[in-house]
User: Which sequence fits this backbone?
């Protein structure tokens, strides 16, 4: 960053990233937030792009991990399966009624 009154760029700070030895041991508390637990191990802070801590990209957006087309297809399949099961139950109920009326 260039500080007012100076022509040379100045480093004002460094972003750090935190990782855990066992990410699965973190306790989810909602809204994509997690708490440290004894199972997760202590937090390890490091600089981006050093020692496998990953990188930070300015101006980029994280993509969703859901494919809307696949999810809509799965929803349609689930609705059809529900309808089919409902019709099977209705047919079985009608057959039991018919059987009960025969005696």
Assistant:
């Amino acid at each position: 960053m260039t500080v007012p009154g100076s022509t040379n760029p100045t480093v004002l700070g460094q972003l750090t990233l935190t990782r855990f030895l066992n990410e699965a041991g973190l306790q989810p508390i909602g809204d994509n937030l997690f708490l440290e637990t004894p199972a997760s191990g202590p937090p390890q802070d490091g600089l981006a792009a050093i020692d496998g801590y990953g990188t930070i990209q300015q101006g980029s957006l994280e993509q969703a991990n859901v494919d809307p087309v696949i999810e809509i297809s799965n929803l349609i399949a689930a609705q059809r399966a529900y309808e089919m099961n409902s019709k099977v139950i209705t047919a079985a109920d009608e057959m039991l009624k018919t059987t009960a009326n025969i005696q």
